[in-house]
TrEMBL record:
GO cellular component, one term: plasma membrane
Main location as per UniProt: membrane
PROSITE patterns registered for this protein in UniProt: ATPASE_E1_E2
Gene3D superfamilies: Calcium-transporting ATPase, cytoplasmic domain N (3.40.1110.10), Calcium-transporting ATPase, cytoplasmic transduction domain A (2.70.150.10), Calcium-transporting ATPase, transmembrane domain (1.20.1110.10), HAD superfamily/HAD-like (3.40.50.1000)
TM region positions: 57-78, 84-101, 253-274, 280-304, 774-795, 815-835, 855-874, 889-905
Name of the featured protein: Cation transport ATPase
Record-level GO BP terms: proton transmembrane transport
Membrane topology term: Multi-pass membrane protein
Keyword Nuclease carried by entry: no
Record-annotated Cation-transporting P-type ATPase N-terminal domain positions: 8-81
Listed SMART domains: Cation_ATPase_N
Subcellular location field: Cell membrane
Length: 919
């Protein structure tokens, strides 16, 4: 093994490094790699030290509310109310364990997610290129790097083709660095400085352009990046805006609770003249009841579960924050090819100045025919077509490979479709490749929108070019017709463009072909791609993805705009956009990349108010579109897959990278990765985002409900100056708040998407979780109903038995039975309320009472708990409860019926009003 010294790596000839690492140009054998993996360990940067288990655990017992309860317990012990003290502490422990369990589950969900995003690299094993998990790389491996790849380890370049690397993660410098494979002298290494050695590449950096092969010399924590990580070793766990808001909310509600508590404490002492210890514990009960203690862990858990649900629907979200932002999204900037369409190209037409051809058949197979005037062609007579096919199959990096009796495309669909065309026309690619040996390539880039290869045929040297129509005609000066090369004048140009537009208007994607004989050895783009001879056009169909029409309709219903941003030709883009419903009006603005560059901010803003399509734009131009939309107040989701998409992905509120076609760089810059590259998955994720937010509101509404019926008894007690004995004791309040309410509430946090969720506009950014509506509903409506029923229960027991405190026939104590009924009535009101909280507008009769299992389980648990409180002797004495009679149960069981029916009536009128407002 070699030393981990970059200077040494840089100054040593590559052959020596191969020797030192026991490797070669062919890389390692799979077996050897496994042996090394065992020895050096996986290639990964150890995650920063997690907060210790104990600390997390204890955190749940040292929260503000927990401390209050500990103190309350101590005071109860001091006042010799031992049972009360024990009970308070028990409640505290149970509550702490519960929130710890929630925390744990949320963490598990997030960890599981990280494992769903494996990264791969291309490595030489057994002399062949193979896909390998980055974690399984070992020193001695030979890795192939291309633009958009993350560099997976530290190493030395073996070969290098104009590679540019972004090292900002290591150096903080955002300018790219050029790399080369040559060995350096000691002086050169010294002059370069750390990380700047031209022949070394480092883990944590990425390839911006060019390509090359590297010899892996250090992996995992042995890399420079690993050293740095081990020094800082912190993960920033930024809190989501939602979590921050919840913290603020909890603090505010706690303050209100404390103020109420102090008022009650003073009232108890001065109005009722209770002893101060009792007054204190009484006031404390109120405080604890009003603090929404379970809020934060529950919200984190429901966010984490939403993330898991999204993952099942092919949207992998990297941070919990994104779930929230997704629900707010107002605009989606989407690629066309591959996201809205299938990216399965089939050439249907070929047009040459001399003739036009129709092509039949679909898919990557040769079943289909090329016809001219409805006649099957004889290729030997079609010289111009031959030339087009020659350019097409030679200026082509893709191939069709036989696999299980069918052809499989390796490469890009655009190029694949040309190979299919050639197959259908029975053009021999292999023979062409032998006659014209490939010398070099000027690769496709999204700015030029052309690709050229240079070939040698005997003494002659040829350039073959394919690309976008304008981009090709711009560099052409002649054209081919019936084997003759003629000057390309404006009339012919117009004719070509008119034909192209005919295709484009039909939604076909066109590609232009041209060539030229080269006279000099120059291979720069500018000198090769000029004075070309135009040959013809192909027009291909790229069908919309399944379900994309529905997804787009959903976006329209949900007031989410879709802006198509594509590299394709304007008319093609518009035609497809219209076909799938992205644009629908008459005033659609199609802005090209060139126009966009020249456009002033103000004009762009004006244009963005209309239906708009961006065509022939380069990915880096998306950044401006995204930021301009943001300055108009939009919450923008933007898709992308290439290196140049990264800035826009970072800038967007939700950057969406393609999981299949996306580069490492794009995936890293994104907030969400689509496992299936499908537009529909974005819309599904938005739906989940909206659902989870509204579920959190449902949860919040539910836990606030019980506050009023919990407070009213104390108010009665205080303002009657003790004439009305306290209808609900402190322990009983705690038993609702930290006992019976908990599980049904959790069920609400996982409620299914409510019908109509995607028929509403997105919520406003910065909208508060706790709306006035929720407060009104919690206190003025559900809370009021529950208060009436519970106080009603209290008086009902008392009045029936002679007010107050006449001993019962069975020797029971009327007061205890009466308080028990208050408590049980609150619980039964909450049973009605939990059903009510499940929807905001929809009828329960429509979504079904039994469709949320967790809620049902929660209610069952609640019933068991309240029965124990009523009948178990030990609990009776701790919670001041007593057995109730069968007729009392009838009263209780009847409660949820009006609670639900009244609310159904309200929702009915609400729906009617909403419908009216809509029409
Ligand atoms: P999009 O994926 O949004 O359609 P691209 O940037 O991939 O946009 O392609 C833009 C245009 O460049 C295409 O419409 C086509 O004319 C041309 N083009 C795409 N791929 C190639 C290629 N491999 N060789 C030559 N031209 C290409
Ligand atoms: Mg493309």
């Amino acid at each position: 093994m070699t030393t981990t010294d970059p200077a040494h790596w840089s100054e040593t000839p590559i052959e020596t490094l191969f020797k030192e690492t026991n490797s070669s140009k062919e890389g390692l054998s799979t077996q050897e790699a496994q042996v090394r993996l065992k020895k050096v360990g996986p290639n990964k940067i150890e995650a920063a030290k997690k907060q210790s288990f104990l600390k997390t655990f204890l955190g749940n017992f040292t929260s503000f509310m927990a401390i209050l309860l500990w103190v309350a317990g101590i005071i109860a012990f001091i006042a010799q109310m031992t049972e009360l003290g024990i009970a308070i502490w028990l409640v505290n422990v149970i509550n702490g364990l519960f929130s710890f369990w929630q925390q744990y589950r949320a963490a598990q969900a997030t960890n599981a997610l990280q494992q769903m995003l494996p990264s791969y690299t291309k490595v030489l094993r057994d002399g062949k290129e193979a896909k390998c998990l980055v974690e399984e790389l070992v020193p001695g491996d030979v890795v192939h790097l291309e633009s958009g790849d993350n560099i997976p380890a530290d190493g030395r370049l073996i070969i290098c083709d104009s590679m540019q690397v972004n090292q900002s993660a290591l150096t903080g410098e955002s300018t790219t660095v050029s790399k080369e494979a040559e060995v350096l002298t000691a002086q050169q290494v010294q002059a370069a400085g750390q990380f700047a050695e031209a022949n070394l590449v480092y883990e944590g950096t990425s390839v911006v352009s060019g390509s090359g092969d590297m010899l892996v010399l250090a992996t995992g924590m042995q890399t420079e990046f690993g050293h740095i990580a081990s020094l800082t070793n912190t993960v920033d766990q930024t809190k989501s805006p939602l979590e921050k808001e919840l913290e603020v909310l909890t603090r505010q509600l706690s303050m209100i609770a404390i103020i109420i508590g102090i008022l009650f404490f003073l009232a108890a002492i001065f109005f009722v003249h209770s002893p101060w210890v009792q007054s204190f514990i009484f006031a404390l009960g109120m405080v604890v009841a009003f603090i929404p203690e379970g809020l934060l862990p529950t919200v984190t858990l429901s966010l984490a579960m939403a993330v898991q649900k999204m993952a099942k629907r092919n949207a992998l979200v990297k941070h919990l924050n994104s779930v929230e932002t997704l629900g707010e999204t107002t605009v989606i900037c989407s690629d066309k090819t591959g996201t809205l369409t299938k990216n399965e190209m089939t050439i249907e037409q070929v047009w040459l100045p001399s003739a036009q051809y129709e092509v039949s058949g679909t898919g990557y197979n040769f079943h289909g025919q090329v016809t001219k005037n409805q006649q099957t062609i004889d290729l030997t007579k079609e010289t111009d077509l031959c030339q087009l096919l020659r350019i097409g199959v030679l200026d082509n990096d893709s191939s069709l490979e036989q696999k299980n009796n069918s052809l499989q495309l390796v490469g890009s669909p655009d190029e694949g479709s040309i190979l299919v065309l050639a197959g259908k026309a029975q053009f021999d690619r292999q023979q062409a490749q032998q006659t014209y040996t490939r010398k070099s390539v000027l690769p496709f880039d999204s700015k030029r929108k052309r690709m050229t290869t240079i070939h040698q045929e005997g003494e002659k040297s040829w350039a073959f070019t394919k690309g976008g129509i304008d981009e090709t005609l711009n560099v052409a000066t002649q054209y081919l017709k019936n084997g003759q090369v003629l000057p390309l004048d404006d009339t012919v140009k117009q004719q070509i463009l008119a034909k192209n537009d005919d295709f484009a208007k039909a939604g076909l994607r066109t590609l232009a072909f041209a060539y030229r004989q080269l006279t000099n050895q120059d291979t720069t783009i500018a000198s090769v791609e000029q004075e070309l001879i135009f040959v013809g056009l192909t027009a291909s169909q790229d069908p919309p993805r399944d379900n994309v029409l529905e997804a787009i309709q959903t976006c329209h219903d949900a007031s989410i705009r879709i802006i198509m941003v594509t590299g394709d030709y304007g008319l093609t883009a518009e035609s497809i956009a219209r076909k799938i419903g992205v644009v629908r009006g008459d005033d659609v603005r199609v802005i090209t990349g060139e126009q966009l560059t020249a456009m002033a901010d103000e004009d762009l803003k004006e244009n963005l108010q209309h239906e708009i399509i961006f065509a022939r734009v380069a990915p880096e131009q998306k950044y401006r579109v995204v930021s301009m939309l943001q300055s108009l107040g939009e919450i923008v989701a933007s898709t992308g897959d290439g290196v140049n998409d990264a800035p826009a992905l970072k800038k967007a509120d939700i950057g969406v990278a393609m999981g299949i076609t996306g580069t490492d760089v794009a995936k890293e810059a994104a907030d969400m990765i689509l496992a299936d590259d499908n537009f529909t998955s974005i819309v599904n994720a938005i739906e989940e985002g909206r659902t989870v937010y509204s579920n959190i509101q449902k949860f919040l509404l539910y836990i606030l409900n019980s506050n009023l019926p919990e407070a009213i008894p104390s108010v009665l007690f205080l303002f009657s100056r003790g004439l009305i004995p306290l209808p609900l004791t402190v322990m009983q309040i705690l038993s609702v708040d930290l006992g019976t309410d908990m599980f049904p509430a959790l069920g609400l946090a996982t409620e299914k998407t409510e019908p109509g969720t995607m028929k509403r506009p997105p919520r406003k950014r910065g909208a508060h979780l706790l709306t006035r509506n929720i407060l009104l509903k919690a206190f003025g409506w559900y809370g009021l109903m529950a208060s009436l029923f519970s106080i009603g229960a209290y008086f009902y027991v008392n009045v029936l038995n002679g007010w107050p405190q006449v001993p019962l026939a069975n020797g029971g104590n009327v007061y205890a039975v009466a308080t028990t009924m208050t408590l049980a009535a609150i619980v039964f009101s909450q049973i009605g309320a939990v059903f009510n909280c499940r929807t905001t507008t929809e009828s329960l009769f429509k979504i079904g009472f039994f469709t949320n299992r967790r809620v049902l389980f929660g209610i069952a648990f609640e019933l068991v708990l309240i029965s124990c409180l009523i009948y178990v002797p030990f609990l009776q004495s701790a919670f001041n409860t007593a057995a109730i009679r069968p007729q009392d149960w009838l009263y209780l069981i009847a409660i949820p019926i009006p609670v639900i029916l009244f609310e159904e009536l309200r929702k009915f009128f609400l729906r009617r009003r909403l419908r009216k407002a809509d029409s």
